[in-house]
Amino acid sequence: MKSVHGHSIKKGRRIGLVGICCFALLGTAVIPGVRGVRAQEILIGNTTENMTENTTENTTENTTENTTEKPTENTTENTTENTTENITENITENTTEEAALPDDMTIIGFILTEPVSLEVTRGTAVGEVRKALPRELKAMNRSGNTVEVPVSWKAPEDDYTDEMGMDLYTMESVYEYGPWTFTAEVDPAYSYSGEAVTAQVSLPDCREVDSFCGICRDGLLLQASVGVNEKVDLSAFHTTGAMMKDGGYRNVPITFAGEFDSSVPGRYLLSVEVGGGYTDAPKAYIEIDVKDDR
Predict the structure, then answer these.
(1) 183 and 249: one domain?
(2) pLDDT-based confidence at residue 124 (cuts at 50, 70, 90)
(3) How many beta carbons lie within 10 A of that of residue 231, not counting itself?
(4) What is the pLDDT, as a whole number, of residue 278?
(5) Angle at 244 between CA 242 and CA 248, to 5 degrees
(6) Which H or E element spans position 129?
Protein backbone atom coordinates (compact mmCIF):
# COMPACT_ATOMS: atom_id res chain seq x y z
CA MET A 1 0.00 0.00 0.00
CA LYS A 2 1.51 3.33 -1.01
CA SER A 3 0.35 6.41 0.85
CA VAL A 4 0.49 9.97 -0.37
CA HIS A 5 -0.36 12.74 2.07
CA GLY A 6 -3.61 14.48 1.22
CA HIS A 7 -4.74 11.88 -1.34
CA SER A 8 -6.81 8.72 -1.23
CA ILE A 9 -5.25 5.29 -1.26
CA LYS A 10 -6.96 2.75 -3.47
CA LYS A 11 -5.55 -0.76 -3.52
CA GLY A 12 -7.35 -3.96 -2.51
CA ARG A 13 -9.66 -2.56 0.14
CA ARG A 14 -9.87 1.11 -0.78
CA ILE A 15 -8.50 3.06 2.12
CA GLY A 16 -8.02 6.78 1.77
CA LEU A 17 -5.62 8.52 4.05
CA VAL A 18 -6.63 12.16 4.19
CA GLY A 19 -3.91 14.10 5.83
CA ILE A 20 -1.67 13.41 8.74
CA CYS A 21 -1.42 15.91 11.50
CA CYS A 22 -3.06 18.69 13.48
CA PHE A 23 -2.35 20.08 16.88
CA ALA A 24 -0.48 22.95 18.22
CA LEU A 25 2.46 22.53 20.54
CA LEU A 26 1.51 22.31 24.17
CA GLY A 27 2.31 25.61 25.85
CA THR A 28 5.64 24.50 27.35
CA ALA A 29 8.54 26.83 26.68
CA VAL A 30 11.83 25.30 25.67
CA ILE A 31 14.52 27.35 27.40
CA PRO A 32 18.21 26.45 27.37
CA GLY A 33 19.21 25.45 30.86
CA VAL A 34 15.67 24.79 32.04
CA ARG A 35 16.68 21.42 33.44
CA GLY A 36 19.37 23.00 35.59
CA VAL A 37 16.90 25.57 36.88
CA ARG A 38 14.42 22.89 37.84
CA ALA A 39 17.09 20.90 39.66
CA GLN A 40 18.22 23.96 41.52
CA GLU A 41 14.66 24.85 42.56
CA ILE A 42 14.02 21.36 43.91
CA LEU A 43 17.34 21.33 45.69
CA ILE A 44 16.78 24.70 47.28
CA GLY A 45 13.22 23.94 48.32
CA ASN A 46 13.96 20.59 49.95
CA THR A 47 17.32 21.61 51.44
CA THR A 48 15.91 24.71 53.13
CA GLU A 49 12.97 22.82 54.55
CA ASN A 50 15.04 19.96 55.93
CA MET A 51 17.85 22.19 57.12
CA THR A 52 15.44 24.33 59.15
CA GLU A 53 13.56 21.35 60.51
CA ASN A 54 16.61 19.35 61.54
CA THR A 55 18.62 22.32 62.75
CA THR A 56 15.82 23.43 65.06
CA GLU A 57 14.98 19.95 66.23
CA ASN A 58 18.50 18.78 66.94
CA THR A 59 19.77 22.09 68.26
CA THR A 60 16.95 22.30 70.79
CA GLU A 61 17.19 18.66 71.75
CA ASN A 62 20.93 18.58 72.27
CA THR A 63 21.14 22.02 73.83
CA THR A 64 18.54 21.08 76.44
CA GLU A 65 20.10 17.73 77.14
CA ASN A 66 23.65 19.00 77.50
CA THR A 67 23.05 22.46 79.01
CA THR A 68 25.19 21.76 82.01
CA GLU A 69 27.86 19.86 80.20
CA LYS A 70 29.16 21.44 76.83
CA PRO A 71 26.21 23.32 75.30
CA THR A 72 28.23 25.03 72.59
CA GLU A 73 30.05 21.90 71.48
CA ASN A 74 26.94 19.66 71.10
CA THR A 75 24.79 22.31 69.40
CA THR A 76 27.43 22.97 66.78
CA GLU A 77 28.20 19.28 66.24
CA ASN A 78 24.58 18.14 65.72
CA THR A 79 23.60 21.13 63.59
CA THR A 80 26.50 20.55 61.21
CA GLU A 81 26.01 16.79 61.07
CA ASN A 82 22.27 16.85 60.27
CA THR A 83 22.46 19.75 57.81
CA THR A 84 25.19 18.00 55.82
CA GLU A 85 23.29 14.72 55.89
CA ASN A 86 20.05 16.23 54.53
CA ILE A 87 21.81 18.24 51.81
CA THR A 88 23.53 15.09 50.57
CA GLU A 89 20.29 13.09 50.71
CA ASN A 90 18.29 15.62 48.69
CA ILE A 91 20.99 16.10 46.05
CA THR A 92 21.13 12.33 45.49
CA GLU A 93 17.34 11.93 45.45
CA ASN A 94 16.62 14.69 42.92
CA THR A 95 19.55 13.86 40.66
CA THR A 96 18.28 10.28 40.40
CA GLU A 97 14.74 11.47 39.60
CA GLU A 98 15.90 13.71 36.76
CA ALA A 99 18.17 11.02 35.34
CA ALA A 100 15.23 8.61 35.13
CA LEU A 101 13.57 10.88 32.53
CA PRO A 102 16.10 11.69 29.80
CA ASP A 103 15.29 14.88 27.93
CA ASP A 104 15.52 13.26 24.49
CA MET A 105 12.89 10.64 25.47
CA THR A 106 10.51 13.08 27.17
CA ILE A 107 7.93 14.53 24.77
CA ILE A 108 6.50 17.98 25.49
CA GLY A 109 4.16 18.17 22.48
CA PHE A 110 3.27 16.87 19.04
CA ILE A 111 3.70 18.98 15.91
CA LEU A 112 0.73 18.43 13.59
CA THR A 113 -0.11 20.66 10.63
CA GLU A 114 -3.68 19.40 10.18
CA PRO A 115 -6.12 16.96 11.82
CA VAL A 116 -5.35 13.28 11.40
CA SER A 117 -8.19 11.76 9.38
CA LEU A 118 -8.83 8.62 7.40
CA GLU A 119 -11.61 7.54 5.05
CA VAL A 120 -12.20 3.82 4.59
CA THR A 121 -14.69 1.70 2.70
CA ARG A 122 -17.47 -0.18 4.46
CA GLY A 123 -16.29 -3.53 5.75
CA THR A 124 -12.70 -2.46 6.44
CA ALA A 125 -11.54 -4.34 9.56
CA VAL A 126 -10.36 -2.36 12.57
CA GLY A 127 -6.88 -3.89 12.22
CA GLU A 128 -6.61 -2.50 8.69
CA VAL A 129 -7.70 0.91 9.95
CA ARG A 130 -4.89 0.91 12.53
CA LYS A 131 -2.34 -0.03 9.87
CA ALA A 132 -3.51 2.79 7.58
CA LEU A 133 -3.18 5.46 10.27
CA PRO A 134 0.26 7.09 10.79
CA ARG A 135 2.73 4.86 12.59
CA GLU A 136 4.88 7.81 13.68
CA LEU A 137 4.02 11.36 14.68
CA LYS A 138 6.34 14.36 14.68
CA ALA A 139 6.96 15.73 18.16
CA MET A 140 9.32 17.95 20.17
CA ASN A 141 11.26 16.53 23.09
CA ARG A 142 12.39 18.32 26.23
CA SER A 143 15.79 18.97 24.68
CA GLY A 144 14.07 21.11 22.05
CA ASN A 145 14.70 18.66 19.20
CA THR A 146 12.14 17.39 16.68
CA VAL A 147 11.72 13.62 16.70
CA GLU A 148 9.47 11.00 15.09
CA VAL A 149 7.64 9.13 17.84
CA PRO A 150 6.18 5.64 17.19
CA VAL A 151 2.48 5.37 18.05
CA SER A 152 -0.29 2.77 17.96
CA TRP A 153 -4.02 3.52 17.69
CA LYS A 154 -6.79 2.56 20.08
CA ALA A 155 -10.31 2.13 18.67
CA PRO A 156 -13.22 3.92 20.37
CA GLU A 157 -15.14 2.16 23.14
CA ASP A 158 -18.25 2.71 25.25
CA ASP A 159 -20.12 1.01 28.10
CA TYR A 160 -21.24 -1.84 25.83
CA THR A 161 -17.88 -2.62 24.24
CA ASP A 162 -16.93 -5.37 26.70
CA GLU A 163 -20.41 -6.87 26.63
CA MET A 164 -20.49 -6.98 22.83
CA GLY A 165 -16.88 -8.09 22.55
CA MET A 166 -16.00 -5.50 19.91
CA ASP A 167 -15.09 -1.83 19.63
CA LEU A 168 -17.49 0.92 18.53
CA TYR A 169 -16.02 1.23 15.04
CA THR A 170 -16.51 -2.47 14.34
CA MET A 171 -20.08 -2.41 15.68
CA GLU A 172 -21.29 0.78 14.04
CA SER A 173 -19.49 0.82 10.70
CA VAL A 174 -21.74 -1.99 9.46
CA TYR A 175 -24.48 0.59 8.78
CA GLU A 176 -23.23 4.00 9.93
CA TYR A 177 -20.81 6.51 8.44
CA GLY A 178 -18.89 7.87 11.44
CA PRO A 179 -16.72 9.62 12.24
CA TRP A 180 -15.11 7.47 14.93
CA THR A 181 -12.32 8.80 17.14
CA PHE A 182 -9.18 6.67 17.36
CA THR A 183 -6.64 7.65 20.03
CA ALA A 184 -2.86 7.58 19.57
CA GLU A 185 -0.88 5.68 22.24
CA VAL A 186 2.77 6.69 22.52
CA ASP A 187 5.49 4.03 22.45
CA PRO A 188 6.35 3.07 26.08
CA ALA A 189 9.98 4.01 25.48
CA TYR A 190 8.89 7.66 25.51
CA SER A 191 7.40 9.73 28.30
CA TYR A 192 4.39 11.90 27.44
CA SER A 193 1.67 13.18 29.75
CA GLY A 194 -0.07 15.75 27.57
CA GLU A 195 -3.31 15.68 25.63
CA ALA A 196 -3.66 12.60 23.43
CA VAL A 197 -3.53 12.92 19.65
CA THR A 198 -6.67 11.60 17.95
CA ALA A 199 -7.70 10.62 14.42
CA GLN A 200 -11.14 10.83 12.84
CA VAL A 201 -12.08 7.75 10.83
CA SER A 202 -15.13 7.84 8.56
CA LEU A 203 -16.80 6.23 5.56
CA PRO A 204 -17.48 8.14 2.32
CA ASP A 205 -20.94 9.65 2.20
CA CYS A 206 -23.63 8.02 0.07
CA ARG A 207 -26.77 9.81 -1.13
CA GLU A 208 -28.26 7.10 -3.33
CA VAL A 209 -31.34 5.55 -1.70
CA ASP A 210 -31.84 1.85 -2.26
CA SER A 211 -35.03 1.26 -0.25
CA PHE A 212 -37.17 2.64 2.55
CA CYS A 213 -37.27 0.75 5.83
CA GLY A 214 -40.69 -0.62 6.75
CA ILE A 215 -42.20 -0.21 3.31
CA CYS A 216 -45.15 -2.47 2.58
CA ARG A 217 -47.01 -3.60 -0.54
CA ASP A 218 -46.72 -1.50 -3.70
CA GLY A 219 -44.65 1.18 -2.01
CA LEU A 220 -47.01 1.83 0.93
CA LEU A 221 -44.92 3.49 3.66
CA LEU A 222 -47.59 4.48 6.17
CA GLN A 223 -51.30 3.85 6.64
CA ALA A 224 -53.49 5.77 9.09
CA SER A 225 -57.17 6.16 9.91
CA VAL A 226 -58.64 9.36 11.37
CA GLY A 227 -62.07 10.78 12.09
CA VAL A 228 -63.70 13.65 10.27
CA ASN A 229 -62.21 17.01 11.23
CA GLU A 230 -59.54 15.29 13.27
CA LYS A 231 -56.32 17.28 13.15
CA VAL A 232 -53.53 15.59 11.22
CA ASP A 233 -50.02 17.08 11.45
CA LEU A 234 -48.13 15.66 8.49
CA SER A 235 -45.09 17.83 9.29
CA ALA A 236 -44.43 15.65 12.35
CA PHE A 237 -43.60 12.80 10.00
CA HIS A 238 -40.58 14.50 8.41
CA THR A 239 -37.96 11.73 8.17
CA THR A 240 -37.93 8.03 7.48
CA GLY A 241 -35.28 5.33 7.65
CA ALA A 242 -33.70 4.27 4.39
CA MET A 243 -31.01 1.88 3.24
CA MET A 244 -28.37 3.38 0.97
CA LYS A 245 -26.92 1.66 -2.08
CA ASP A 246 -23.58 1.25 -0.32
CA GLY A 247 -25.23 -0.78 2.46
CA GLY A 248 -25.43 2.07 4.98
CA TYR A 249 -28.44 3.43 6.83
CA ARG A 250 -29.73 7.02 6.88
CA ASN A 251 -32.72 8.93 8.21
CA VAL A 252 -33.72 10.85 5.09
CA PRO A 253 -35.93 13.95 5.05
CA ILE A 254 -39.34 13.53 3.37
CA THR A 255 -42.40 15.60 2.50
CA PHE A 256 -45.78 14.65 1.00
CA ALA A 257 -47.47 15.71 -2.19
CA GLY A 258 -51.18 15.41 -2.94
CA GLU A 259 -54.56 16.64 -1.76
CA PHE A 260 -55.81 15.96 1.74
CA ASP A 261 -58.85 17.33 3.57
CA SER A 262 -59.71 15.87 6.93
CA SER A 263 -63.16 17.48 6.83
CA VAL A 264 -64.20 15.29 3.92
CA PRO A 265 -64.46 11.51 4.44
CA GLY A 266 -62.52 9.39 1.98
CA ARG A 267 -59.28 7.60 1.21
CA TYR A 268 -56.32 9.85 0.48
CA LEU A 269 -53.05 8.79 -1.11
CA LEU A 270 -50.07 11.13 -0.74
CA SER A 271 -46.79 10.51 -2.55
CA VAL A 272 -43.49 10.60 -0.64
CA GLU A 273 -40.85 13.05 -1.83
CA VAL A 274 -37.26 12.80 -0.59
CA GLY A 275 -35.16 15.93 0.01
CA GLY A 276 -31.68 16.64 1.35
CA GLY A 277 -29.92 15.86 -1.92
CA TYR A 278 -30.77 12.14 -1.81
CA THR A 279 -31.43 10.49 -5.17
CA ASP A 280 -32.77 7.31 -6.71
CA ALA A 281 -35.44 6.90 -4.04
CA PRO A 282 -38.09 4.33 -4.98
CA LYS A 283 -41.69 5.43 -5.34
CA ALA A 284 -43.58 5.41 -2.08
CA TYR A 285 -46.79 6.81 -0.63
CA ILE A 286 -48.83 7.09 2.54
CA GLU A 287 -52.53 6.34 2.90
CA ILE A 288 -54.89 8.27 5.17
CA ASP A 289 -58.46 7.07 5.58
CA VAL A 290 -60.85 9.77 6.85
CA LYS A 291 -63.91 8.12 8.37
CA ASP A 292 -67.21 9.63 9.39
CA ASP A 293 -68.05 7.88 12.64
CA ARG A 294 -70.74 10.33 13.68
Answers:
(1) no
(2) very high
(3) 6
(4) 97
(5) 95
(6) helix 126-132
